[in-house]
Amino acid sequence: MKFSVFSMICVSLGMTSAYSVSDSNQVSGNEQSGNNSNRLAVRRYRPGPQMGRPQMGGSQMGGPQMKLQIFSQTGHRGSNQVQYLTSGRCYNIPSTGSAIYDDGTRGSGYITFCAGSNCQGGCYTASRSVQLYPNNIPGIDLGAYANSVMWSL
């Protein structure tokens, strides 16, 4: 049985049923076009006890951070705000329809958006090396606006 790095991270974090973009169908030269290359199946998982309480700010925590600019509407429109995420932590966010990661540059790890708060409910995960700026979060198999997010290395 073949496991992705993300699947192994999910197991170590205590997630009971997680999913990721298959590494075998990702090409490092892929450019994002309409998010079609990032379509994923939605699965539910429960965060393990190691994840702690959701936090809004990661600047007081050590370790690498990822800049996340979130927009209230799809197409990078509507009100927006910037948050800095620390790996392995779940953050509750305002209802989000689109986002830009690290000013649109490639990054490491995986980003998970969830329809519910506290990284629960329907979620989808995408590789940061492939997905740079999702412009339609409800349309990428999530089926709803995102209300929580987690970045994993």
Unreliably modeled segments = 1-59
The description of the largest β-sheet is:
4 strands, antiparallel
How large is the radius of gyration? 14 Å
Element-by-element helix/strand order? HEEEEEEE
The overall pLDDT, averaged over residues, is 74
Helix content: under 10%
Describe the structure.
The model is unreliable at 1-59 (pLDDT under 50). It is built from one helix and seven strands. The strands form two sheets. It has a four-stranded antiparallel sheet with strand order 3-7-5-6, with no helix packed on it. By secondary structure, it is mainly β. The chain has a domain at 63-153: Sandwich (Gamma-B Crystallin, domain 1), CATH 2.60.20.10. The two termini are 22 Å apart. It has one helix at residues 5-13; strands at residues 65-73, 77-86, 90-96, 98-101, 110-114, 123-127, 146-152.
List keywords for this structure.
6% helix, Gamma-B Crystallin, domain 1, signal, disordered N terminus, 7 strands, 153 residues, single chain, 4-stranded antiparallel beta sheet
Quick description:
By secondary structure, the chain is mainly β.
Task: Tell me the layout of helices and strands.
Layout: H1 5-13, E1 65-73, E2 77-86, E3 90-96, E4 98-101, E5 110-114, E6 123-127, E7 146-152
